[in-house]
Write a structure and sequence with these properties.
By secondary structure, the chain is α+β, with helices and mostly antiparallel strands. It has one domain: q2cbj1_9rhob like domain (Jelly Rolls, Sandwich). The chain is 24% helix and 23% strand. The strands form three sheets. Strands 1, 2, 3, 6, 9, 11, 13 and 14 form an eight-stranded mixed sheet that branches. It has a four-stranded antiparallel sheet with strand order 4-10-7-8, with no helix packed on it. The longest helix has 18 residues. The radius of gyration is 17 Å and the shape is globular.
């Protein structure tokens, strides 16, 4: 078992995140990148827009990452032994592009209640201040959910461009990760990320999120996969484990899941963005 230490758990409870955590080898991280770039080559545009979501449903390699024992041991330390996978997202910032993530709180728009869940951000490439790593506002998870403004900014990688105003950048912590490391963050911690100013892509494979089996989706419908323990509440429908890469049956299920997720992300909005 590679559970988090008491020190790491206390840090998470105090700051709202914990990092870095070693979970994948360089070879395993490279395997994810190769899978992404194979899909981009053989199925252009498949991973764009909504296609960046639920990617574990179309690739055995992506699905294997979600079931990695080092990741699950760390997650179990925070949310308990009954763990479901409720989604995955690729956050890719290509070199010199204008992609960024405005400061926000995940719990504001994802609809998962109660907050017994955690997001795992796994670095496929190195993630640092030059290429636009995440920044966390430590301790911000202890307050109430903040008001978010829908901005739909060009380059914003969030669905609605949801933005918390006046976040003091100087008080935020850069989450610097080597390829194969991950961070875990709380549903209500305020976080965002800047531009990629490097010469290479910055790729994050994000399990958004690992949820306890007691967590319901109050805004719509999600598809889950059991990662560990028991599904004690049976709130959700199960997704299929992918047969092989971009299998036709898997793609049908993937498209259905993405459509339901879009309804959640844009609930109450009269406008839709790229994602």
């Amino acid at each position: 078992m590679t559970n988090l230490s008491d020190q790491q758990i206390n840090f998470y409870n105090d700051k709202g995140y914990v990092a870095p955590i070693d979970v994948l080898s360089i070879q395993e991280a490279n395997e994810i990148r190769e899978e992404i770039e194979l899909i981009e080559k053989k199925w252009p545009n498949a991973l764009e827009g909504l296609g960046r979501n639920y990617v574990h449903m179309i690739s055995p390699i992506f699905n294997k990452v979600c079931l990695n024992n080092k990741i699950l041991d760390a997650v179990e330390s925070l949310i308990g032994k009954n763990i479901l996978i409720c989604g995955t997202t690729l956050f890719i910032k290509n070199a010199k592009e204008k992609g960024f993530v405005s400061f926000h709180q995940d719990a504001k728009y994802i609809g998962l209640e109660p907050h017994n869940w955690v997001t795992a951000w796994i670095a496929v490439t190195d993630s640092n201040e030059e290429n636009g790593c995440m920044r966390m506002w430590p301790g911000s998870h202890k307050g109430k959910l903040k008001d978010h403004e829908q901005k739909f900014d060009e380059g914003n990688l969030l669905t609605r461009g949801q933005t918390i105003k006046n976040v003091p950048i100087e008080e935020t912590d850069p989450i610097v990760l080597k390829a194969g490391q991950m961070s875990l963050h709380h549903p209500t911690v305020i976080h965002g990320s800047g531009l990629n100013k490097s010469k290479d892509r910055r790729i994050g494979f994000v399990v958004q999120s690992y949820i306890g089996s007691n967590v319901d989706q109050v805004l719509g419908k999600i598809y889950v996969q059991k990662a560990r323990g028991e599904d004690t509440h049976k709130f959700h429908e199960y997704s299929k484990v992918p047969i092989d890469l971009m299998n036709k049956e898997d793609i049908i299920s993937w498209n259905k899941a993405k459509d339901e997720l879009s309804k959640i992300f844009y609930k109450g909005s009269n406008k839709k963005g790229k994602y």
